[in-house]
Amino acid sequence: IKLSFTKDSSSKGDVSQFAALATSLAATIGTGNIIGVATAISLGGPGAVFWCWLTGVFGIATKYAEGFLAVKYRIKTEDGTMLGGPMFALERGLKAKWLAVLFCIFTVFASFGIGNMVQANSLSMLVERTFNINPNVSGLVLSILVALVIIFGVKGIAKVCSFLVPFMAVFYVAGCFIILGINFEYLGESLRIIIHSAFNPLAAGGGFVGATVIAACRFGISRGLFSNESGLGSAPIVAAAAQTRNPVRQALVSSTGTFWDTVVVCGITGLVLVSSIVAPNGIDASEGAGLTEA
Questions:
Q1: pTM exceeds cut of 0.70
Q2: Alpha carbons 284 and 35: distance in angstroms, whole number
Q3: Alpha-carbon distance 191 to 196, whole Å?
Q4: Which of 15, 100, 217, 261 has CB 3.0 to 4.6 Å from 90, enough for a Cys bridge?
C-alpha cells in the first residue's frame, strides 16, 4: 500500500503507479462490489459474502502475477509509449502469437458486456427509479462523458481516475460506515449468519430465502471475480504503462487493487446489506439490484 503512493518518477513509464492503480480500481469499484454483492446475497444468501471475500483474498495472488507479467513483457513504441498486457506476455513469453490475437479479439467483445453494458444498465436503472430520468437520457450522457475521457488515451483516463476514484471510494465507504454505526447492535448477528450460512444450508425466514451452500459458494465466487477482475487481463494493460523500476514493484501495487476492491469494499458492502436485512423491519433480501439502493 505504501508503494502505491510512492512516486517512482525516475523509472520508465507513462503514468504513475498510483494512477495505474486508480485506473484499475475505476473499472472494479462500482457495479461488481456494490450491485454485485446485493445480487449474490439475493441469489445465494448471506453466505455468499464470505465466499466473495475469500475470492478477493486469493485474487490478490492472481493480480500480482498479472501485474508482474505486464511490466516484464511490455514494449516501448517509437514515440516512447509503453504497451503491455496479456497479449504481449502470450506473444513474447509463451511465443504463442495466435493466443495473443485471440485474447485481443475476445477483449474487444468482453468490453461491451462486462465493461459497459452491465455498468450502464445498473446506473440508468437506479437513476430512473430514484429520479425518474429516462434510461435513454442516462445512456446518452454516459456515452458523452466516457468519450470525453477515453479520447485522450491511457494518460487522460489515468488522470481522471486518479481524482475520481479516491473521492468515490472514500464517500462510498463513509456512507457504509454510517449505516454500520446505525446497525451496530446487529453486526455480531450478521457476521454469525454470514459465516454459518457459508458452510450450512440456510432455512427460509429471517429476511432471507432458503439458500444452499452451493448457491452461496457459486454466486459469492462469481460476483467476487466479477468485482475484482483478477485473471481477466484488463488491469495488466494499464499496469504496463506504470512508471516503475521493475516488475515486482508494480505487481505489488496491482495486487493491492484486489485488496481494496473485494476484501475491503465488498466486505463492507456485504456487512451493510446483511445487517440491514437482519435489523427489525429491515429491507427485503429478494430485491436484488434494488437491495443496495434500499
A1: yes
A2: 15
A3: 8
A4: 100
pLDDT category at 289 given cuts 50, 70, 90 is low
158-181 per-residue burial string, b: 16 or more CB within 10 A, e: under 16: bbbbbeebeebbeebbeebeeebe
Q: What is d(CA 135, CA 273) in angstroms, rounded to the nearest whole number?
A: 26
Instruction: Report how far apart, in Å, the C-alpha atoms of 63 and of each of 15, 59, 69, 131, 200 are.
Output: 19, 6, 10, 38, 30
For the cut 70, the answer to whether the pLDDT of residue 263 exceeds it is yes
Residue whose C-alpha cell reads 436484488 in the numeric block: 288
Interhelix angle for 31-44 vs 267-278, to 10°? 40
Rounded CA-CA distance 278/190 in Å is 7
- Model pLDDT for residues 91-144, shown as the tens digit of each residue: 999 999 999 999 999 999 988 877 788 888 888 888 898 899 999 999 999 999
Q: What would the grid cell of residue 258 be?
A: 484486489
Whether residue 12 contacts residue 76, with contact meaning beta carbons closer than 8 Å, is answered with yes
pLDDT digits (tens, 9 = 90+) for 3-17: 888 877 667 778 888
Which grid cell is 35? 450491485
Of 19, 16, 95, 58, nearest to 220 by C-alpha is 58
